[in-house]
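Deviations from the work plan: none for this task. Representative record:
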Amino acid sequence: MPYFGVHQSISAGFDAAVYDAAAMGYDCVQIFSGNSNRWDNKPISETAARKFQEALAKTGQYDPLVHDSYLINLASPDEALHEKSVARFTDELVRAQILGVPRVVMHPGAAKDDSKEAALDRVARSFDRIFESIPENTTQVLVETTAGQGSYLGGTFEEIAAIIAACDHKDRLGVCLDTCHVFAAGYDFRTKASYDAMFEQFDRTVGLDRLAAFHLNDSMKKLESHGDRHDHIGKGEIGLDAFAMLINDPRFAQKPMYLETPKKETEEGEAWDVLNLKALKALLN
Ligand SMILES: [Zn+2]
Ligand SMILES: [Zn+2]
C-alpha cells in the first residue's frame, strides 16, 4: 500500500503541520520551509526544528517532503533572477537539512525567451553548482513533472530526463510525478492501456527507478490543456479509475503520494483533505 501525504501550511508551526496531517489520517506531510512567495526567509530556529522532529516521531510519520518556493527559476536566462534562484534553492536544501527533511521537490522552471535546450542545461549546471557549494548537504532533489505551460520545462518526460542526463550528480536527483500536471501536459492514463503506455514511456526516458514520489491531484483542465488547476480526487477530468490503477500498482506500493488539492471546506463544513483521503482509501484493493 502506498502512503498518503498532504500539503500543509506551516503558519501554525512546522510541528502543527505534522500533527494536523496525522489527525486527518495522513502518513506524511509536504510543507514549504518558509514563505514560498518571498525571496527573504526567516531562519529556522533549533527549537522549531526539534519540535518538528518530535512531531514526526510522536505521530509515526515518515517521508516529510519540502516543496521549493514558486519564485525560484533555475532555468532563467536572466542573470540576476538566475543568481537569486541559485541562492534561494541552495537555502532550500540547507533549510531542509536543518529540519531533517531528506528531500526537496522543485519545479524545473521556465526558459522564457531562451531555447528549451539551453534552459534544461542551465538547470543541470545550477544543480551541480549548488551541490558542490554545500558538500556536507545530502538533501535529495525531486524534479517535478509540470503541465508544460508556455516556456515551462518539465512538461515531457524527455525534458526531465535531459536535466538528469546533463547533471554530474545524478545520485542526488529523483522525480516527483504530479498526476494533474502530466495529464494537462498531454499524458492520458485513464484506461489500462494508456496507463501502461505512460509508465512504459516514463521508464524508457527517465527510468522508473528515479520515480520517488507522486503528487495526487485531479485536474480541472482537460487533457493537453497545459493548464495547471488541481481538483479533488475523482471530481476532475482524470477520474477515479486512473487513481485506482495508480494507488494499487505494486510498483508504487512503497512510494509516498501527497495531495495538493484545494483546501476550502465543503458547503457542509467538511474538510476536503479528509474527503479526498477517504475517496482514495475506498479505491484500495
Ligand atoms: Zn505538484
Ligand atoms: Zn500544480
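The first helix runs from residue 14 to 23.
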